[in-house]
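A protein record in our archive is deliberately plain, so that people and models can read it alike. The record that follows is passed on verbatim for readers who wish to inspect the format.
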Amino acid sequence: MFLEHDEKKESIHHCCSLLGYSKQSYYKHLKTQEKVALYDYIILNKVKLIREDLPVLGGRKLFYMVRKELSGNIPIGRDAFFNLLREYKLLVHRKRIVKPITTLSWHHYNKYPNLIRDLIPSSPNELWVTDITYVTSQEGIFYYLSLVTDAYSRKIIGWYISADLSMDGPLHALEEAFHDLPKGVYPIHHSDRGVQYCCNAYVKRLKDAGLQISMTEGGNPRENAIAERVNGILKDEWLNKLSLTFIEQARVVLAKVKYL
C-alpha cells in the first residue's frame, strides 16, 4: 500500500521533471482547474435562471446581466463567456423567417408631416409613438402587435394583439392609451404612414381627442426610433417562440413588462 503510494508520488515528480515543471506547479495547476470549473458552474447556473424568464435573450445582454449579478466576484471576459455558452449549447441560434410587411403606405389617405424631428420630450404625455410589429408562435403563425409608447417614460400605455393587419388592432391600443390620459393634456401622436394610422376612423379618433398628428416622411426607421426599439426588445427577448397559447401568454408578459 505504502509502496504503491510512493511509486505514484515518484511518477508525478518524474513526469513534472520531464516537462520542466515542479511538483508544486502541478498541484497549483490542479487547484486552478478546480477554481475555473467552480466559476463555470456558477456562471452556467446564473445563465439558466435568467433564461427561464428570457429564453431567447441575446448573448451580449446575457453577459452583462450575469456580470452585474455576480458583482465582479467571478472574472470572465466576453469571449470566454461566449465560448462557455457555445460549449454547453446555450447560444441562441435565430431561425431566418420570411418577414411579413406591416407598413402599407401605398394608399389614398391623407399623410401628415413629421412634427417631432427636433423634439426631445421633457415630460410624460408630451409625445406618443406608435407602431405595429409581427411576432411568431412556435408553429410559425404570425400575430400582429399594435403598441402605443410614451416617448418620455418609455412606458407601454396601449397595446393589442390581433391575427390580422386591420385597423382594429391600432384602435384598440389607442383606446387603452386614452384611459389614463389626464383631461386637458394633448400629446403629439407619431406613427409611420401605414394605412391603419391614416385611415378615416383612426384619424377621426385622434382629432376628436385633440391630439396633433405626426408621421414619418420616409422609410428611415430612425424617424420612429423609440417605437422600433420597443418592438425589438419585445419580439427578440420576450414574445418570440412561445407555445400554442401565444396570445394569452403575450398578454401576461405585457402586463409585467411596461417600461422598456
The first strand starts at residue 127 and ends at 136. The chain has two domains: 2-87, 127-256. Residues 2-87 form one domain. Confidence is low (pLDDT under 50) at residues 1-9, 26-30.
